[in-house]
């Protein structure tokens, strides 16, 4: 055991504790400094894979815009049974009751019916408040980490019609887990795990901000403990240049007890090899049966024995294959342990199978006192002299026409033409192929940014209140259109 003297740890609203002694287990074992080396037994053939979830004899994996359904009845030989393409910049997924929820960063959230393994079906494409990264579910509430915008809470009582409930500003949230009415978010550069009371999902309340030694990301709850995967730089100063005490030394696993779920208490940590690489910088953890499986991107996967949470030990490690064109090893995006195997998502490589003979990993799902979604309070359309327009989607942009009318980009709800004066009411709706994220008016023309749908040129039909599309441009886009500006007096 080693004691680290860490300075300037922040708690709650800003109390500083200096020279705080923390117990650290460096993770050495009889097999070597970072445990026994594990080998990849075989690949599943999905190609580059960002995340994977296993449940019984089925598994699901995402990567390069696709969701794969797999038969894992023979654990050592997963077999692809179905695929759904067109899901954008896929990042994480969670599956519950035959429905997969896939976060896709700038492409928002995709909700997919996976009850038929051979034919996944898209149910909804939801416009999240910012880049959708982490995802977790508890009862009928879906939690989506949206980076600098915090965490969005979404009602998925009807998975085909997700509805925004609230937002909690945690800081730059990357991954989340929810249990018994509390949400735990790994917060990135502020090096924190933020705890939020979400028992009333319409009014979440932050209860604690717990310091981490590295950048916060992956979180998991199991057996009364909270596990947090960290990376990048340590809190030690300085950390800007290679060779600095904190440079690249934030990688590891931190353990907290949650006897009081609102206020976790630090127990211990282990450290992984230091490194710093921007890009695919993400870290995740899944705990099961006294083992914590940690995805540490370019460092590979670590298996940590956490049967004694006060003295965790790194048992084994698996590094992914070297990728010649990248001139470095592949990175781990996510993982799923099941029985005596672990499925590892290689972001540049494939879905890998690792054999762990003699290790029983199948565990019963722990009980969860899920949040209860109460009735929505009636929203006044006239608030203290203001008039409020509430479309189904979120409002991204607005521009004005003549005669008291406005054009509103409403995300997944398309483009709305509304009357502003003398009344505030909807006149018509134009559906879009992608999220409507910007509008710009020039004379009688309206330009619309439609994401993957490109740029539309629209007009208001003479003698009517219908907004109609007269042209579309989307050749050679190479991505999604998010903003558009019409230059006055120009074509």
Q: Explain this structure to me?
A:
The chain is mostly beta strands. The protein contains no helices and 45 strands. A 5-stranded mixed sheet has the order 5-30-29-28-27, with no helix packed on it. A 4-stranded antiparallel sheet has the order 6-35-34-33, with no helix packed on it. A 4-stranded antiparallel sheet has the order 7-8-9-10, with no helix packed on it. The protein is globular. The N and C termini lie far apart (70 Å).
State the share of residues found in helices, binned by percent: under 10%
Give the strand content: over 45%
Outline type: globular
Biggest sheet character: 5 strands, mixed
The number of helical segments is 0
- The helix/strand class is mainly beta
Summarize the structure.
This protein is mainly beta. It has no helices and 45 strands.
Keywords summarizing the entry:
491 residues, 46% strand, 45 strands, 5-stranded mixed beta sheet, mainly beta
List the helices and strands and how they pair.
Elements: E1 2-6, E2 9-11, E3 15-17, E4 20-24, E5 36-37, E6 42-43, E7 51-55, E8 58-63, E9 66-71, E10 79-84, E11 92-96, E12 99-103, E13 109-113, E14 121-126, E15 135-138, E16 141-145, E17 151-155, E18 163-168, E19 173-179, E20 182-187, E21 192-197, E22 205-211, E23 215-222, E24 225-231, E25 252-257, E26 265-271, E27 284-288, E28 291-295, E29 301-305, E30 313-318, E31 322-323, E32 328-329, E33 332-338, E34 341-346, E35 351-355, E36 382-383, E37 386-387, E38 397-400, E39 405-409, E40 415-419, E41 425-430, E42 438-442, E43 445-449, E44 455-460, E45 467-473
Parallel strand pairs: 5-30
Antiparallel strand pairs: 1-4, 2-3, 6-35, 7-8, 8-9, 9-10, 11-12, 12-13, 13-14, 15-16, 16-17, 17-18, 19-20, 20-21, 21-22, 23-24, 24-25, 25-26, 27-28, 28-29, 29-30, 31-32, 33-34, 34-35, 36-37, 38-39, 39-40, 40-41, 42-43, 43-44, 44-45
